Amino acid sequence: MINATWLETFTTLCETEHFTQAAKRLNMTQPGVSQHLRKLEQYFGYPLISQDGKSFSLTQQGDAIFALGLSRRREEKQLRETIEADDPNIGEIRLACSGSFAMLLYPKLLPWMNTAPNLRIDLEAAPQTNILSGLIAGDYDLGVVSEKPNHSRIKAQALGREELCLLLPKSAIGINITYAELQRRGLVAHPDAYAFADKLLPLNFPNEYLGSNALRIRGYINQIGQIPTPVAAGIGYTILPRSGLEAFPHSKQLMVAKLDTPQSQNLWLISRKGRVMSSKLKRLIQTITETAEQITTI
């Protein structure tokens, strides 16, 4: 690799056409300028200037190196301008969160994207462990998780608490919701349903609940947007965070069971420690915060 300091010294020498003036501009000594010139000539194996008394002219090779030096300056200037520019509507940002929170959040990002054609937002629905590892690896700029990570490189900011909702069809309004009634209907399962059941059901049915492996399963869906669909049609029940209910387009066909002991999960916004937040990320964080407030329970 060409030594960048030698190249900058030579470029300045070519511009000033004088060793003393070049040294003054670079805050160097004249012998220092001469030394950088000699090192650059040794590196390329060609003389770069032809001296005539106190003046000099560039050799053919010197012309080529001078052109390279000017080109490097332009590239560095463009790079600096790109780095220093902080336009919230230009660039790329990457976020990962649960599927239910993603369904609620993404429509709120669309108006922003529609007015910012040079902005790219990647939103990935992922399990908490994947979000954490992806954030550490640099795959994501931000993440939203339900458990505060205990990692030295991760910063966590509390967003609020999200209710776990026991969802039944609207036709179940007025029915006494017992564990036997839930077993009769059967669980519409999904990847997080068993963990949610273990959090919610033993608190409300302590004498009957024997664990998620003892639940009667009516069906299984891996598509987050379709989980409430069979319940809305009168088939079974399911358990989702409040965001999953709010994002469901037919939420009026569902009811949230009134339980003696409601249960919520925390929401945490996570990022890498020391990360300087650009204007794009600050705007995204504001939208995430507002979305979390919509579903937060006290």
From TrEMBL:
Gene3D superfamilies: Periplasmic binding protein-like II, Winged helix-like DNA-binding domain superfamily/Winged helix DNA-binding domain. Pfam families: HTH_1, LysR_substrate. PROSITE patterns: HTH_LYSR. This is DNA-binding transcriptional LysR family regulator. CDD domains: PBP2_LTTR_substrate. Residues 2-59 form the HTH lysR-type domain. Belongs to the LysR transcriptional regulatory family. It comes from Litorimonas taeanensis. Keywords: DNA-binding, Transcription, Transcription regulation. One of its GO terms (molecular function) is DNA-binding transcription factor activity. InterPro entries: LysR_HTH_N, LysR_subst-bd, WH-like_DNA-bd_sf, WH_DNA-bd_sf.
